[in-house]
Amino acid sequence: MDPLTWTGALAFLNPIYQIALLLLAAAIVIWMVMSILSAGTRQVANADGTVTLAGNPQAMASLGVRFAFLAVAALSLAYLLLGLVMNTGAGIVGAMSRQLLPTWVALVVLFGLSISFKRRLGLYGKLFDSPIGMIGFGLVMFWVFTGIFAAADLIATHDPLAQVSGMKNKVPGTPLRGAEDGEYAWYLLGGDNLARDVFSRMVKGAWEVLKYAPLATLFAFMVGITLGLPAGYYGGRLDTVLSFLANLILAFPVILLFYLLVTPEIVATGLPQFMAVVLFAFPMVFCGVLIHSRFRTQPNKDYMWLALVLVPMFLLYMSLINARGSKIDFWPLDFFDIPGGVLVVFVSVVFVNSPTVFRIVRGLALDIKTRDYVAAAQTRGERPWYIMLWEILPNVRGPLIVDFCLRIGYTTILLGTLGFFGLGLPPESPDWGSTINDGRKLLSIYLHPALPPAVALMSLVLGLNLLADGLREESLKD
Amino acid sequence: MGLFILRRSGVMIITALCLTFIVFFLTNLYPNLEKLAKTEGNFRMSDEAVASWLEKNGYAQPIAVKYGQWLGVVPGWTRTEDGTVTGRCLDGGVSPEVAADAPRYCGIIQGDWGYSTRFKTEVGEIIETRLGNTGYLMMWVLILMVPSALIIGVLAGMREGSATDRSLSTLSIMTTATPEYVSGVIFIAVFASSTVGLKWFKGTATAAMENPTFENFFLPVLTIALYGMGYIARMTRASMTEVMTAQYIRTARLKGVSFPNIVLKHALRNALIAPFTVIMLQFPWLLNGVVIVESLFNYKGFGWALVEAASNNDIELLLAVSVVSVVVVLLTQLISDIGYIFLNPRIRIS
């Protein structure tokens, strides 16, 4: 087996691609300079000192940007599509493109369906009107699908924990020595310092992130909403106490808090578990109050819904906090155990995130509670919790959804930070933070183990940021 | 105004007390003390030996008493055994006469920060040198970050929706999406790697502690500055676009004031009120970045001391680190509140 080059048989495209990239960069710079120089006028000074009025140079520059961008996009697509067909014949890029086939299919299906039905899909459909939002959504969904399919073992070429002799720190595209039948014959992105496949670890790491980040953010939102709404609505002493507590947590340096919570000694005392008992109870409280405040006057419906929602949630909750051989071990119906380290990471991320959500919700509630429809609800004698959860909350959903996207990105960064310091998650875990931490020790000699997870994390967070921007733009339109 | 500052300072002191107590409580949990005893004494200590070691070194007292002693409002513990006296305020075992002359209170109020079990020196000394290193780093970060973020924000916000706006906004979103440990790795790969990189800069900042040069110091500074820059730039842009749609700007335009004059003389001052608060509130995040960058570039500053103290359960050093960081965070919050009132005449605290 020969080592793979980056583009293989498509190498003839490389010079064209470079030219297109250079053109794009030049076009963007010219476009920017034009927009500063030609301030609201069509008069532009040329380099030779003359002044021209003909045409609009700014429009021409933006046309240039558009064409250069199209060229770059078309060439990138060519690499990927030809890679799909030619597999390893198109080098590392082609082989990776082929490995990611399930992701591409899922993306195409999702975008095709969404764009054709976008008028009927509400805010989600409107997202496909804004290019920024579409790019962001595409990036996010790329990693979501990659994570899901990687968890189903459709993408990774090797076991992310398997060490193959002779592959230590090998450069991308190195063939495996004596690869057996059915085994993938190359390390597409090289081997790390323990001779594991970097590509497989990167795609598996996507799943690690997707498992924790959105769920932790959701829990933080439950806590923040359940406490923030009454703080903003009632005000007074409750607000003072809760705001003081939130500021207390916010003033704490995050890394110090992680170091204090995540050490094995603290885990042994059961403190994170007790925190989990409190923090994980909030979703139940939230759902319970949500249902009861709505159906208070219809007891039959009320009890039915409460039982339908709260019983499964309670069982889940008890399984979550109950763990064999730990401080909390009394509940007989334990369906699953969360590994200690993972629970701690989860709890600390929720704990750090919820005060910020609390402050946002409190501010929004303070603003909304002066509106007429709140006064109307008060006049017709609605209870405070009904007003908070069924009058105020639906009307602040826009900013909350936007912040939810941003906060998933921020949680991803936090999880990466934890991995980077080797806290909490098991040491061989393929999550991006840990992989970057492993790779950075030999960074000045071997780049390939640290760069892929770094770029992956960056693109996911960038995608979430762009998605949030697109959503904000679209939700402000109506 | 005086009352406002007084009240804020009171809340600040209560917050600092609460936070240090939490840190104190977490570091003084029994498993942590057991680990400390084993690292200080010997690793094969029996449970009784651990208990007697803790008893001897004053760790077995109730937590509130210990916290009071550390704070310096409760007299330090002493213990007499075979004619020698050991105690919190004493240096090893001494005779009763010497012990009688020693100060009774020794906590942080008296300026005694304690003794670091990791570095085997006074905590005060460590904090001073490490904080000096980090202060120098932070100074350059602020010098790089604040002006460039403001310039980017103002340029993007002065004409909303223009090409400059769109490209600079994309740039600032990209920098906020790149945490320090990612941008640091990429910068080292591009600028410092010995195999494929450009070799413009050094990949470590160890030498920068004695002799900071552009070559060994620029990358860490840039790494921290970039992450904070995007956020400040976005806030500046938002406030600038808001100001540019105000009535008085339209009046100025109708009077025929030139565009640069409008931006520099009319809009800029009002547009910079909001970013001021944001810059001040960025400090807690900068602290985060400092820890990451200092371990990535091996620069032995405050963040490095935090990591060392936390991973070795060095209680006194950890407490000192948390006191310093909490005070920094709270002070910046106070400054941002007061500064906001001074800058924005529309807000009056009665």
Report on this model:
The complex is a heterodimer of chains A (478) and B (350). Chain A is mostly helical and 478 residues long. Helices cover 68% and strands 2% of the residues of chain A. Chain A has 19 helices and four strands. In chain A, helix 2 packs across helix 3 and helix 7 packs parallel to helix 14. The N and C termini of chain A lie far apart (59 Å). In chain B, 69% of the residues lie in helices and 2% in strands. Chain B is built from 15 helices and two strands. In chain B, strands 1-2 form a two-stranded antiparallel sheet. In chain B, strand 1 and strand 2 form a beta hairpin. In chain B, helix 6 crosses helix 9. The mean pLDDT of chain B is 83.
What's the structural blueprint in terms of helices and strands?
The complex is a heterodimer of chains A (about 475) and B (about 350).
Chain A: H1 13-37, E1 44-45, E2 51-52, H2 57-86, H3 91-99, H4 101-116, H5 122-126, H6 131-151, E3 174-175, E4 186-187, H7 198-234, H8 236-250, H9 254-262, H10 264-269, H11 271-279, H12 281-294, H13 299-321, H14 340-368, H15 372-379, H16 384-392, H17 397-420, H18 432-440, H19 451-477
Chain B: H1 2-27, H2 30-40, H3 47-56, H4 63-71, E1 78-81, E2 84-87, H5 96-101, H6 123-158, H7 163-176, H8 180-192, H9 214-244, H10 247-255, H11 259-271, H12 273-281, H13 283-296, H14 302-311, H15 315-343
Antiparallel strand pairs in B: 1-2
